């Protein structure tokens, strides 16, 4: 039977790169791409680029207008009938990945949207694998060693993003007895390890935006910075997912796609400062003071940093990735160290830091 993959989240950065990778690994596969109506024009452009890059012919790909927040994914009966008959693999990537997202919006997209995808998955006749993109940070405020086998440990959450991704994964894991499932939990995703390319400057890029504002001043450290910051390049996430989604050993497994050797927040901050500004920080601001200051929206907008980012500088959690490392080793897939991919990330930021499409507005 021909492999038919149904992918949500296209034309998002990770979904687009994953599609390209799978298309090359599986040259006879076909793809059904669920696209929100607001993204249809961009999706057509991305698909044209992908086909021109060699993932052709165009007939392998179908764009379907839909909405994960609507019942039946907002699809018509003809589309649903065809998909239920043909789809063999589902990749659910569509979500809101914003640490400052309001609760109601996060819940509607991340939880209700995932529930609708789950309902769709249960209706498929020939499903071979459902690959769901969660996040390592479903661990919330837990500290210490976090294992891939763990989920609900009574934790609280630092923001609505974490809380809703946790609730969504709980509902996905409830399918494990009935659905062939693989759950992917990435760390904090940065740009490509070789080119630095990324879709937007959020997450660790807020540090670069902050340092840009202070480049003429003596630069401070942010708190003690003892916590590990788990940064991974997007190409590692893509390579690992494209392998695990079709690997028999990954069936009914949960994987931390995290960096097995993360740097501390202080080391990470110092490395970014050196690569971006050519100098090291010389004094320290308490993280509590910075977090309190960022409660003031004018200051947030000036330094271009969301206050939710600061909590990760002091969050003492480490993500065990033993299962992922074991199952990816045979495929020759490994996560590079931050020192290997930080300079390309900084160089890409420098080249594109005025691009309005990449600058996430700070509210």
TrEMBL record:
Family annotation (InterPro entries): FAR, FAR_NAD-bd, NAD(P)-bd_dom_sf
Gene3D superfamilies, alphabetized: NAD(P)-binding Rossmann-like Domain (3.40.50.720)
A Pfam family of this chain: NAD_binding_4
Annotated Thioester reductase (TE) domain residues: 7-240
UniProt-listed SUPFAM superfamilies: NAD(P)-binding Rossmann-fold domains
Protein origin, superkingdom: Bacteria
Name assigned to this protein: SDR family oxidoreductase
Naturally occurring in which organism (per UniProt): Tumebacillus lacus
């Amino acid at each position: 039977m021909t492999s038919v993959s149904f992918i949500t989240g296209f034309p998002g950065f990770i979904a687009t790169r994953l599609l390209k990778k799978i298309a090359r690994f599986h040259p006879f596969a076909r793809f059904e791409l669920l696209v929100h109506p607001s993204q249809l024009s961009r999706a057509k452009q991305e698909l044209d680029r992908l086909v021109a890059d060699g993932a052709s012919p165009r007939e392998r790909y179908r764009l379907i207008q839909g909405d994960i927040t609507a019942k039946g994914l907002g699809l018509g009966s003809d589309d649903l009938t065809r998909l239920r008959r043909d789809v063999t693999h589902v990749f659910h990537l569509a979500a809101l990945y914003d640490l400052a997202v309001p609760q109601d919006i996060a819940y509607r997209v991340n939880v209700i949207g995932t529930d609708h995808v789950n309902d769709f998955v249960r209706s498929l006749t020939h499903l071979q694998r459902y690959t769901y993109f969660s996040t390592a940070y479903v661990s919330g405020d837990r500290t210490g060693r976090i294992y891939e086998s763990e989920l609900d440990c009574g934790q609280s959450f630092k923001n609505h993003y974490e809380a809703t991704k946790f609730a969504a994964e709980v509902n996905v894991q409830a399918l494990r007895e009935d659905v062939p499932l693989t759950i992917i939990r990435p760390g904090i995703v940065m740009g490509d390890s070789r080119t630095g390319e990324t879709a937007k400057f959020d997450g660790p890029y807020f540090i670069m935006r902050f340092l840009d504002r202070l480049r003429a001043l003596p630069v401070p450290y942010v708190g003690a910075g003892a916590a590990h910051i788990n940064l991974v390049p997007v190409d590692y996430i893509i390579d690992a997912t494209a392998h695990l989604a079709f690997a028999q050993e990954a069936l009914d497994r949960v994987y931390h796609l995290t960096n097995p050797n993360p740097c501390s927040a202080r080391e990470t901050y110092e490395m970014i400062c050196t690569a971006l500004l050519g100098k090291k920080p010389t004094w320290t601001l308490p993280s509590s003071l910075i977090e309190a200051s960022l409660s003031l929206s004018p200051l947030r907008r000036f330094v271009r940093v969301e206050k939710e980012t600061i909590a990760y500088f002091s969050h003492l959690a480490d993500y065990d990735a033993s299962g992922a490392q074991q199952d990816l080793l045979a495929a020759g897939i490994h996560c590079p160290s931050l020192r290997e991919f930080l300079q390309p990330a900084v160089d890409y930021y420098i080249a594109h830091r005025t691009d309005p499409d990449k600058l996430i507005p700070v509210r």
